[in-house]
Every structure is written in structure tokens, then in C-alpha cells.
Amino acid sequence: MSSKNGKPNGQSFDLSQTELKKLLKKVPSDIQFYINHLEKQVKNLAEIGLSLSKEKDMNVLLENILLEAKRITNADGGTLYMKTDDNRLRFEIMMTDSLKFHMGGTSGQDIPFYPVKLYEDDGKPNKHMISAYVGLTGETVNIPDAYKAKGFDFSGTKAFDEKTGYRSKSFLTVPLKNHEDEIIGVVQLLNAKDKKTDESIPFSTEVQDIVEALSSQAAVAITNKNLIRDLEILFESFIKLIASAIDAKSPYTGGHCSRVPEITMMLAEAVNESKNEHFKDIHFTDKQMYELKIAAWLHDCGKVATPEYVVDKATKLETIYDRVHTVSTRFEVLKRDQEIKFLKQQLKVEKDSSLSELETKNALKDIRKKYREKITQMDDDLDFVKTTNVGGEFMSGDKKDRVKKIANYRWKDNGESKNFLSDDEVKNLCIAKGTLTAEERKIINDHIVHTIDMLQQLPYPNHLKNVPEFAGGHHEKLDGTGYPMGLTKDEMSIQAKAMAIADVFEALTARDRPYKEGKALSMAMRIMGFMKNDAHVDPFLFELFVKEKIYLKYAEKYLTKEQLDMD
């Protein structure tokens, strides 16, 4: 009943007041419950986003996205597609819990289905398939019951149901859009389940909103992962380009740039797997292994600044050309002069009427003997110079003395009498080891200085900040006699020590050096054993190098059969 003025009478007013108070008392709790629910959902989404952003493995990342979408919606099944460059949706993961069905992702089982075409063969958009429609339009499609839906082709779904006895009902198909609003994939969820009855139910508007928010986060995480991958590929390609440039500049060192990383990483992996007490507190993470690999690839990048005539100096007398050929020509001049001298002496004796026939005969015999001895000596000296010019591991003092003796021969160059060998030629022929003078050796050694200078100029991310130190330390020695900084064992990182072993072993066994042949495996290991004893390489790493037969694994791949003389 109401009063005349339209207001409730006293009884009605008192009842309405009571109800209103009850309502007003209940509203705050409902609002608070709703707020708490929203906060929980936001927090969950934030945690999911953080988790997705941290995942580095793409297969795991994609699978986690689908699993989270299934968990939020309590869906029985789901499929995740990724858009390809040729406008298709590639199946990445498929799973249906009730059928115990799991393909793609981390399952190890390939998905045998062809990608879904976004466009038909005639160029028309493929809008009759839900996944393609969503991939084209970017619109979410929420279907309560596939068997009652119109506008989409569910013939494949029905055929699957008939074959398996399954009942596909509710579908929620959501686009994966990145931060630039580009569609990069599609998430499709199947059969939302009532938590109490386990019956298939439609996907609610609320869970649709949450899945759309999740999809946006997921798309950003996928895009970031792809960007990181693309940047890493670009970075590694650039590094290999530098190695290729060195290779093109000098065929003698190009292979070195690619082989040292392989030995280095084999040794680093052995450290990770080692049970040796010395390595118990050392374990390289994936990031540290990647950092070491990059450093190994870049360890000789400074050689781009090293002159070719030094890098390619195959013989002691080589500059732009091998000057041994010039020396050979000088010997021919000496032999010519000696021949002229011999002929003049012979003619003089023959014309000397004061000599008896026997005296003439003996004089000519003596002249011929001396001539042959001179020629033989010159030929022997030339062979000696040619042999010395090749270079080697050791040049004895008596050989150096012989070079200086040959240098004092006199010959005429355009009528000017000169020493047979110049001071520079003597200096080069007397090189004790290899083919480089001390000055040239310094130029070669300075490549590591250039390497460090070049690498220190790059703006590294945090996980690559040690690249200059690792790459720049591979010529250091434990006893402090290395270069360029003369570091001792306590000042060297284990990564630099590992790279030092790799660098030495590769150099000893390499078959493409201009000044020497690649050593047999046994000789290379013997030399490295001496280096270990002399505190030039790390003894613990070298013992691991030997114990795990890293030397043999590498040798079987890169050395010749002739070099493989031990196991």
C-alpha cells in the first residue's frame, strides 16, 4: 500500500528501509569481492607476463602460453598457430586432455597437418575456417556450440569427432597481436569445462577478456624472443663475416678463426661435465657458454689490421715476392763471372809458350778443378740459402755464421761491387725460428692489441661484457711471459685459459700455415706437455683436454691420416 502522496505508508516504508539496509550492507562486500577478484586476475596476468618474458626456449614459451590459456578457461583442449611469411598458420602445439593428446611443443611428436591457408589459391581470403578468419581479421570468435554455429566450416571437426567419439562443442579463438598490432599467431581453445560438473560449457565473456589480455602479453613475449633470436643471428653472422674477411685477406689464417671456437667449446663442455675437484665450483651457464663462443669467434678479429705481407710471409726472404729468386740470380752472376775467369785463365795458359806440354796440361787441370770446386760451392751455398729461407723451429749458430760468410761474397751490380747479401737479407735468413723477424713478430703480436681495442668499443649487453677480456687473453701465459699484458695465472679467467689451449693446439696442428707443415698429433701433444710444465698453459685444463680426449675428437675431424699417429 502507498500513501496518497505516492510515498509508502509506514509499514511499507519500514519494510523497504530494512531491505534497503540489507542491500546496502551486502553491496560493499560484493564490490570488495569483485575488486579482490580483479586484483587477483591482474596479479595473475602480471605474473604470467613476467614468466613468459623470462622464458628463452621458444617451444617451452609457446607451450606455456597455451597451457595458461587452458588453465584460465578450464578448457579441455587447445591449439596454437604461428603465422608464417607466406601467409599461413603453422600448427605449433595441439593438446586435448580427455583424449590424452599432445603434439608439437615439448612433446617431441611432430604435427602432421598442413598449415592453414589464410588465402585460397585464387587469392580470396579464407574466412570459412575460424583460425584463418581470426588470423585475417584480428577479431576474437567465441562459439558456444560448433554444431549449431553458422558461417564457418566445421566439417573437419565433425569428422574428427566421428572418428574419435569426442564431442567438440565450445570454441574460443583469439588472435596473437604484438605491440605493433600485427597478427603473429592464433590461440584456439576447445570445450570449456564446468568445474563442478565437468560438462562442456560456453566460454564466458569474462574469460574471453582475460584470454585476450593474455594473448597480448604472449604476443609481445614471442615477438621479443624472435627479436632477440634475430639479433643474435645478425650478431653471429657479423662475427663470421669478420672471420670470412680475415680468410679472404689471408688463406693461411681463415680456418683458424673457425676452428679455435670449436676446440674452446669442447673444452668448456668438458669443464661442465667434469667431476674433478678443481672444477667443482665451476659451471658455465648457457649465457656464459654463448659469451665464450662469441669471444672465441672474435679472438683474432684484430688481424684485419695486420699487413698481408706479414701474415702471409711464407719464407724468410718474402716481402711482396720471395727474394730468394733474386739471390738465385746473383749466384748465376757469380757463376757467370767465375766461368769467364776460368775461360780467361784457360786461354792464358794455352797461349803461354813458355810452358811445356806437361806443365800446360797440369795447369789446365788445376784451373778446371778449382773452377768445379767454386761452382760446386756456389751450388751448395744456393741450396743452403733456399733451405734456410723456408724457416723452421730452430736455426743453429753455425748456420747463421755460414749465412754471414755467404753475405761477404762480392758481386758486381751494374759495375758496382757489393756484398752478396744485404744487411736486411742477412737479418731475415738468420731468423732463429719461423719466418718472421722480431719487428714482424711484434706486428703479428699486435693483432691482439687491435683485437682488444676493437672489442672494447662495442656496446655489449650485460651477458657479453666479458668478451674483450676472454678474446684478448688467449696469448697470455700463466707465468706472466705472455702478451699483451703479461698476466699471471691468478689474473687470467678460466675462459681465457681454455681459449689459450685451443689457440696453441690449433696452431700446432694446422696444415695451412705458410711457414710450416701441420705437426703430427703426438708431436703437438708433446709440445703442449712441455708448455704445461713451463707454466705456459693451465695444467688442470690441459689434463682435462687429455683425459676427455678432446684432442682426438678434434683431430679425427680436421687432421690428415698422416697426422693421426696416436689415440
Report what the structure shows.
A hairpin with a 4-residue loop joins strand 2 (88-96) and strand 3. This protein has 4 domains: 1-54; 56-228, GAF domain (Beta-Lactamase); 250-305 and 445-558, Hypothetical protein af1432 (Orthogonal Bundle), CATH 1.10.3210; 324-435. The longest helix is centred in the N-terminal third of the chain and has 45 residues, at 10-54. It has helices spanning 10-54, 58-73, 130-137, 155-164, 205-249, 254-273, 286-298, 308-311, 324-351, 357-390, 397-407, 423-429, 438-456, 467-472, 494-509, 521-533, 539-547, 550-558, and strands at 75-83, 88-96, 101-104, 116-117, 141-143, 171-177, 183-193, 200-201, 410-413, 416-419. The termini are far apart. Helix 1 (10-54) runs parallel beside helix 5 (205-249). It is elongated. The chain is built from 18 helices and 10 strands. The relative contact order is 0.07. The strands form 2 sheets. Strands 1, 2, 3, 4, 5, 6, 7 and 8 form an 8-stranded antiparallel beta sheet that branches. It has a two-stranded antiparallel sheet with strand order 9-10. It is α+β, with helices and mostly antiparallel strands and 567 residues long.
What is the N-to-C order of secondary-structure elements (H for helix, E for strand)?
HHEEEEHEHEEEHHHHHHHEEHHHHHHH
The proportion of residues in beta strands is 5-15%
- Strand tally, please? 10
As a percent range, the share of helical residues equals: 55-70%
* Structural class by helix and strand composition: alpha+beta
Morphology call = elongated
Low-confidence stretches: 1-13
